[in-house]
Write a structure and sequence with these properties.
nucleotide-binding, 473 residues, 9 strands, protein serine/threonine kinase activity, alpha+beta, two-stranded antiparallel sheet
Length: 473
């Protein structure tokens, strides 16, 4: 990632001008050459910079910031007489003018940097900063950057740090989305959500400090297990339901429930994460169509107003995937999946139910993946899921208190993620960052992230139950 003084390399026009120099100098002959020698001798008496041609070539090859003084500190012995003879006086003046203009730009950039450091966005008295954490290694990649496993230096507490590039956020026009995610996260706290602790920023990145989940995400475990047992599926879906029930009680839709956004702690309990496209419920939301097609409710795909039951549809898709090892609606594009949904209502048939699975489990999943929201389990409230026969006599209070032994325990000796899926931003993101990095110098751009910071260092640590609304478990 480039710094503040990053200079855009010269265009190909420079090399074209140098090529034209040879022809023009030959046409001008000895007279033009003599003019340059005379003029050059006068300049050398007062200026010890390299010859115009050498200087021009140096600037053409520069890929990172260099100060003007460094360029002018080189001895005139670097100049070659033959190269001096190959440049016309007109081209020399043009190159010299470019030098002067770029020197002015460097001075302006330095002044902007000094002014930028003095503004109120990134002062040195911030309580939370990047250097307060030891970055251990990358454990995931998101749409705007990476997720790190970090250790807070002072307390030795382990967290997950979500690092997001401001340049990518600007390029993808997602400032409102990341600001919305932080605001929603800071308003929620629950044992079945990945909770936020700190949020801060520097000139180039946004940072979220979150609960670290050693067990990895469900996508990783689906890749290894292919399917889960009925007891494992019921336990997982109950955990997800508790997180969703709390979010819905706070009038928040997640809208992107999928295995990648469901992570396990070391004891096998699932938590919901990634609220990037979560929204506070409002009556007119037909235009909010973001999500992952394979788990997206039909009313969202068809641009209709929607409510909490969109999250229950996704929960049903996950249950279907756990039971049969595939999603009910598949396709290579959003259009293909939508066409399948509109063409036919998928249901688990009695003949498809695996051995050792109950009819109640299939009925529960079938009622969640109903295309019509009014027919979907949970449309009339979360109690419809609790009261279904599949969860008859289920110990909800013990689950909430995490007093149950999970039927699936992730590997305890290592972090559960696929290292092959971890990579630095791809070339496309790299190009977007380079194209937009210079925009971060503007205070008007940085002001869009104003208010992102969240400091919980000074807040008292209270039992999580005291921070929750009263919900009857």
């Amino acid at each position: 990632m480039y710094g503040l003084n990053y200079r855009i390399p010269h265009s190909r026009q420079d090399s074209y001008q140098v090529q034209r120099v040879d022809k023009s100098s030959i046409n001008q002959g000895i007279q033009g050459t003599q003019m340059i020698h005379n003029d050059r001798s006068r300049i050398d008496q007062n200026d010890h910079s390299p010859s115009p041609l050498i200087h021009g070539k140096q600037k053409f090859s520069v890929q990172s910031s260099q100060s003007t003084s460094a360029n002018h500190s080189k001895k005139t012995s670097l100049s070659k007489p033959k190269q001096t003879q190959q440049i016309s006086f007109l081209n020399y003046l043009m190159l010299k003018k470019e030098d002067e203009e770029q020197d002015k730009q460097i001075i302006q950039h330095q002044q902007q940097k000094s002014s930028f450091q003095q503004n109120n966005y990134f002062t040195n008295d911030l309580q939370i900063q990047r250097n307060m954490f030891n970055f251990l290694y990358v454990i995931g990649v998101g749409g705007f950057g990476k997720v790190w496993k970090v250790e807070q230096k002072k307390s030795s507490q382990i967290y997950a740090l979500k690092e997001m590039s401001k340049a990518l956020i600007i390029a993808k026009k997602s400032v409102n989305s990341v600001m919305n995610e932080k605001n929603i996260l800071s308003s929620l706290k629950h044992p079945y959500l990945v909770n936020i602790y700190y949020a801060f920023q520097d000139r180039e990145n946004l940072f979220l400090i979150l609960d670290y989940m050693q067990g990895g995400d469900l996508r990783y475990h689906i890749g290894r297990m292919r399917r889960f047992s009925e007891d494992q599926t019921r336990f997982f879906m109950a955990c997800i339901f508790l997180g969703l029930e709390y979010m819905h009680s706070q009038n928040v839709l997640h809208r992107d429930i999928k295995p990648e956004n469901l992570v396990l702690d070391k004891n096998g309990y699932i938590r919901i994460t990634d609220l990037g496209i979560a929204r506070v419920l409002r009556p007119e939301n037909a235009q909010d169509t973001s999500g992952t097609p394979g788990y997206m409710a039909p009313e969202v795909m068809c641009r209709q107003n929607h409510s909490f039951s969109v999250d229950y549809f996704a929960l049903g898709v996950i249950g279907y995937e756990f039971m049969l090892g595939k999603r009910p609606y598949t396709g290579r594009s959003r259009k293909e999946i939508r066409d399948q949904i509109l063409a036919k209502q998928i249901q688990i048939k009695r003949s498809e139910i695996p051995e050792s699975w109950s009819l109640e489990s299939a009925d529960f999943i079938n009622r969640l993946i109903q295309r019509k929201p009014s027919n979907r389990l949970g449309f009339n409230g979360a109690q419809e899921l609790r009261q279904h026969s599949w969860f008859k006599n289920f110990p909800w209070q013990k689950l909430y208190n995490k007093e149950l032994k999970a039927p699936f325990i992730p590997n305890q000796s290592e972090d559960n993620f696929d290292a092959r899926q971890i990579s630095i931003e791809n070339e496309e993101n790299g190009e977007l960052i380079q194209q937009n990095i210079l925009m971060l110098r503007r205070n008007s751009i940085q002001s869009q992230f104003n208010g992102y910071d969240l400091d919980n260092f000074t807040q008292k640590s209270e039992p999580i139950k005291q921070q929750l609304n009263n919900i009857n478990y």
